[in-house]
């Protein structure tokens, strides 16, 4: 089935304008439930508000059946979007072209224009999630709400800030080497993000809702986070870390200030997040344990938890574990079949990690390497891993309970949304932009205390220290969907084609500075329904880079 044919089926048969407490014009997969609580009912019942609240962490694992039914097996929610972003960097790769090609288009920079399902999925998923957040936010009357409901409101505002910050950093047009901020319609789209839709947006407003500027979006997100900071202290049950707390609000502020390069405030809020967090950095045992390595939500500030009842889990193959856990036998990667790819770390990135850094053991060591003794394999597939798993394949993410064969158990795993380790790296980088020595000291303290007792670096200048901090952050958060934002913000190049590369041929793309594909394109159906977007889209980056070929 051709890509365009699938897309046409989607927009003609599925996409509707969903209207509830707010209106979102565009391609949204959810229809209006007939049993939605009214605002009056919400105010009179904590259980009604609680139901709207718990719809938010559930949306992390939202299964887009309309896309899946058309044989695309990537739409498993927030984790899928994390995976997409990582495949667009130079750190995270498939070792071969997966025969189904579900995620390959993002890695290869193909079909990224406004008329394809790949663009459609990201935009539709995020605004569907925003709609769920707006339902909660619009249903709480601050003047008459109970303390408990104010806590729910604070969480809802934090969720919305998370989503808009992701979208702002993905869709904002920043200069790159192969496209211009003056688009084909002659309009300057530099620093434009996405339309802001809130609980108060009317249908008429949504139909003429321009892309927010960077400053407008920053102000909007900051206001949400300021209010979240005020209200979330009333939230006392974090539902095993699937809901944000005050530390997460500080963490979101740290990310927000990093985006606009306000490094003093980024450093401030990263430290507040560290001091407020209810968790400590993961230990070596936490990270490498074959049963609980990166599937234990209790180790993180904020996470997404899949359950055996989730549609993603019941699908067997359209879920986080299927795509991220190389040691499953039921999934799309690793041992799911002879044609399935392994998720691997970039060769040059792996080589740069010190052998004394235990995080290097999160990847299969080359044959004969003394590091191989540190690799931990799930016993069920240990021999196969040692013999047939691609070198540098990820051992980081584990199926639940280390169960590699039963998807109903193994796929009911968790994945991180925010970890306290990220805050240490934000603090160090933000400090380095202001004072290289201070940033280096913060990095060294973290690395020696938590990751590599033998850590040492000779970097001294601001540029060198920032690069070193960001590199160590990339190692730490490999596979967690954050590296994309740093590469784009810092105008770093992506280099996948080089002698000795382990990238497959079609993905060996090299850029001069940030890649054009990191300026996401807004879908055509949203332009059809929102006249303010007509003529104001980002340039299509598809196929503007030629794969590197060894000489």
What this model shows, in words?
With 551 residues, this protein is mainly alpha-helical. 43% of the residues lie in helices and 5% in strands. It is built from 23 helices and 6 strands. It has helices at residues 3-13, 39-44, 46-59, 65-68, 78-87, 104-108, 117-138, 147-171, 203-206, 214-231, 246-259, 263-276, 284-288, 311-314, 320-324, 347-352, 382-388, 407-410, 420-434, 436-451, 462-476, 483-490, 524-529, and strands at 16-19, 23-28, 92-94, 302-305, 343-345, 414-418. Strands 1-2 form a two-stranded antiparallel ribbon. A two-stranded antiparallel sheet has the order 3-5. Helix 3 (46-59) runs antiparallel to helix 7, helix 8 runs antiparallel to helix 10 and helix 10 runs antiparallel to helix 11 (246-259). The longest helix has 25 residues, at 147-171. The chain is globular, with a radius of gyration of 22 Å.
Topology (SSEs and partners):
Blueprint: H1 3-13, E1 16-19, E2 23-28, H2 39-44, H3 46-59, H4 65-68, H5 78-87, E3 92-94, H6 104-108, H7 117-138, H8 147-171, H9 203-206, H10 214-231, H11 246-259, H12 263-276, H13 284-288, E4 302-305, H14 311-314, H15 320-324, E5 343-345, H16 347-352, H17 382-388, H18 407-410, E6 414-418, H19 420-434, H20 436-451, H21 462-476, H22 483-490, H23 524-529
Antiparallel strand pairs: 1-2, 3-5, 4-6
